[in-house]
């Protein structure tokens, strides 16, 4: 793919990398190692809304890598899961994942997927995709089997599910964009890159 500018994905997320590469973008990956828990904790304690927390974290990652690679277009990302006003963090253990999935069972939760593009230490573009996901009532037996089968695969997913794998069986309804669930507002991002001429139109 002929691209006019170098694009760097400042994320350690495999699916984000794969989505962009499968779309034909020749991107580099440079995960931004920021203290997400500290930054998120501070923002949440100030009462910042979930979508703005995701935006701020995505911006912090993009800004950090842009400082190192000022000429490139740097994409920072962050995804927040909230159940009503409460932000749930990525489950660290299968037990925490089980508790979290039990809380989400039979409820509607939201994912806020933020992406921010920096160049030369300045923000160029930002978007927060929002999705509503209704989870069916999950039995304890199924939940145990689901985690036994999928923990290794879903441990890095914010909701302990991958929609493109068995996780789809947890849901009865999803209002929003498939890619935004996976972790990137792809359609908005690609539209921007095409509009600005980074990608051929
Ligand atoms: N494959 C897959 N990944 C998902 C899904 N839902 C959420 N995720 C992932 O959950 C992770 C959300 O955590 P983040 O903190 O935004 O990102 P990260 O993986 O820690 O990577 P960084 O961008 O380096 O912070 C991302 O990697 C998302 O891609 C899904 O349905 N499928």
UniProtKB/TrEMBL annotation:
Catalytic residues, chain numbering: 78 (proton acceptor)
Keywords: Cytoplasm, Hydrolase, Nucleotide metabolism
Pfam families the UniProt entry points to: Maf
Cofactor or coenzyme needed: a divalent metal cation
Main location: cytoplasm
InterPro entries, per the entry: ITPase-like_fam (IPR029001), Maf-like (IPR003697)
Gene Ontology biological process: nucleotide metabolic process
This enzyme's EC code(s): 3.6.1.9
A cellular component annotation (GO) from this entry: cytoplasm
Location of this chain's protein in the cell: Cytoplasm
NCBIfam families, per database record: maf
Function text: Nucleoside triphosphate pyrophosphatase. May have a dual role in cell division arrest and in preventing the incorporation of modified nucleotides into cellular nucleic acids.
Protein name listed in UniProt: Nucleoside triphosphate pyrophosphatase
Source organism of the structure: Tranquillimonas rosea
């Amino acid at each position: 793919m002929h691209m006019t500018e170098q694009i760097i994905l400042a994320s350690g997320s495999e699916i984000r990398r794969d989505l962009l590469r499968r779309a034909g973008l020749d991107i580099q990956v440079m995960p931004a190692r920021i203290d997400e828990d500290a930054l998120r904790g501070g923002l949440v304690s100030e009462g910042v809304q979930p979508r703005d927390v995701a935006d701020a974290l995505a911006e912090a990652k993009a800004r950090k890598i842009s400082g190192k690679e000022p000429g490139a277009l740097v994409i920072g990302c962050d995804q927040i899961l909230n159940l009503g006003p409460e932000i749930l963090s990525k489950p660290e253990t299968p037990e925490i994942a089980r508790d979290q999935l039990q809380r989400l069972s039979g409820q509607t939760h939201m994912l806020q997927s933020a992406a921010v593009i920096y160049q030369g230490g300045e923000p160029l573009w930002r978007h927060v995709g929002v999705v509503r996901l209704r989870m069916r009532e999950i039995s304890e037996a199924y939940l145990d089997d689901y985690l036994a089968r999928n923990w290794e695969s879903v441990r890095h997913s914010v909701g302990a599910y991958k929609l493109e794998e068995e996780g789809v069986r947890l849901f009865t309804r999803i209002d929003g964009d498939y890619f935004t669930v996976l972790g990137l507002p792809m359609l908005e991002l690609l539209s921007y890159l095409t509009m600005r001429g980074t990608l051929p139109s």
